[in-house]
TrEMBL record:
InterPro entries: ISC_FeS_clus_asmbl_IscsX, IscX-like_sf. GO terms for molecular function: ferrous iron binding. It comes from the Bacteria. This is FeS assembly protein IscX. GO terms for biological process: iron-sulfur cluster assembly. NCBIfam families: iscX_yfhJ. GO terms for cellular component: cytosol.
Amino acid sequence: MKWTDSLAIAEALYDAHPDVDPLTVRFTDMHAWILALPEFEDDPEASNERILEAILEAWIDEAR
């Protein structure tokens, strides 16, 4: 999984943190959680605010 796989990352975050409301998550926490996903294999420094926003939006949709 890479930073561009926003939907797959969002699904994995939803599965890993089912009791977390994504609207309350800080980007710094979400970044750390993404890096901790076993399937994640991308450069930790390659993310940016736009990428994290896309992942967060997908996670919010997944949580609905």
